[in-house]
Design a protein that fits this description.
Elements lengths: L5 H12 L9 H11 L9 H17 L2 H13 L13 E3 L2 H7 L5 E3 H14 L3 E2 L2 E6 L2 H7 L3 E3 L3 H6 L17 H24 L15 H4 L1 E4 L1 H7 L3 E3 H14 L3 E2 L2 E6 L2 H6 L5 E3 L3 H5 L3 E4 L12 H20 L1
Antiparallel strand pairs: 1-2, 3-4, 4-5, 6-7, 6-11, 8-9, 9-10
Length: about 325
């Protein structure tokens, strides 16, 4: 089996990280799931790359604005193909008396887009999105009386709305039966696309890595940042790159014995560390980057002479952290 490229590994990691609990999964378990998802390829030799990339992906996820994500999903909920002669989603149609009462309107006809917008205004005003999964709506009493359920996915909202809009179709969440012929066409299309992709890969000449050569991290990852006063108080320096900040934080954690003895992935925050971690008494090693990002005040230019692999010191701290985590996993 050919060894996958970094971009291939990263793409599968990005897909996987959204479906696992990063607060509880161990690095060993994550790599095992990643390996299985990639057809059983041995990824242990690439543990450092996977760990670095996982940190980046978690950081990217945390940087995402929940409100923007919800707004985007709201638009996705109402985007349906237009039916010829129906006038599209903007066409006003008769609504049920129950929906009319819920919306507090005198209108007897409304467009679906207007209805969905009003429902989202109600959802946001009453904070009805599940904090753990904002795609899920936890209905309040008024919405439960209207729709007859306690919760639904935002992607199913259109079906529940449809039950209150002419022609008042009952809610049917039964998956549509797949057309074998259509599925076969899709399968052939995927196979053809994969064959073309594999052929294109075969034509590319991969540069061989010299023995002992270290993988160079992206410039964006080693760029120095101006740090907040609170972070400076912990790491002792005012300008550091993200890996250097992580290294200094682990030095502080170990020097002050902040790891939970029974689970070294859990950090028990002291007064200084708690300020950086948004007031949390304890956090997991996977959560650190989320809170640290707020203390990286300004990204500075990377001096050319500093565009090189991470310092040995950072690697040593990383290896020590890996060893402790693996030791704990073996004990489990």
């Amino acid at each position: 089996m050919a060894e996958p490229s970094d971009s291939q590994v990263r793409a599968v990691m990005k897909e996987l990280v959204g479906s696992v609990d990063v607060d509880s999964i161990t690095m060993k378990q994550f790599i095992a799931q990643l390996s299985k998802k990639m057809g059983g390829v041995d990824l242990k030799p690439r543990k450092k790359y996977i760990k670095t990339t996982l940190t980046e992906l978690i950081d990217e996820m945390n940087k995402g604005n929940d409100e923007d994500a919800a707004s985007s999903a709201e638009e996705e909920v109402v985007v349906e193909p237009k039916k010829r002669g129906a006038g599209g989603l903007g066409a006003e149609k008769e609504i049920s008396p129950e929906l009319k009462d819920f919306l507090g309107t005198e209108k007897t006809k409304m467009a679906r887009t207007e209805i969905v917008k009003a429902l989202w205004d109600h959802i946001k005003e009453h904070d009805l999105q599940n904090p753990q999964d904002k795609r899920e709506i936890l209905l309040d009493e008024a919405m439960q009386r209207l729709f007859g359920v306690e919760r639904f996915s935002m992607f199913h909202m259109a079906k529940y709305v449809g039950a209150h809009v002419h022609p008042f179709k009952p809610v049917d969440l039964t998956p549509k039966e797949k057309d074998p012929e259509a599925e076969e066409k899709k399968k052939r299309k995927r196979e053809n696309a994969k064959a073309k992709k594999d052929e294109a890969k075969g034509k590319k000449k991969r540069k061989k890595k010299e023995p002992g050569e270290k993988r160079k991290p992206p410039a964006s990852f080693i760029a120095p940042y101006r740090l907040s006063p609170e972070l400076i108080d912990v790491v002792g320096e005012s300008v550091l790159s993200r890996p250097q900040v992580t290294s200094k934080l682990w030095e502080y954690i170990k020097a002050n014995n902040l790891q939970l003895p029974s689970d070294k992935r859990t950090i028990l925050c002291d007064d200084k560390f708690k300020i950086i971690m948004d007031g949390n008494e304890r956090i997991t090693m996977f959560q650190m980057n989320k809170y640290v990002s707020a203390h990286l005040i300004e990204k500075l230019e990377v001096p050319k002479e500093e565009e090189k692999p991470l310092k040995e010191e950072s690697e040593e701290v990383e290896e020590e952290e890996d060893a402790e985590t693996e030791e704990e996993e073996d004990e489990d």
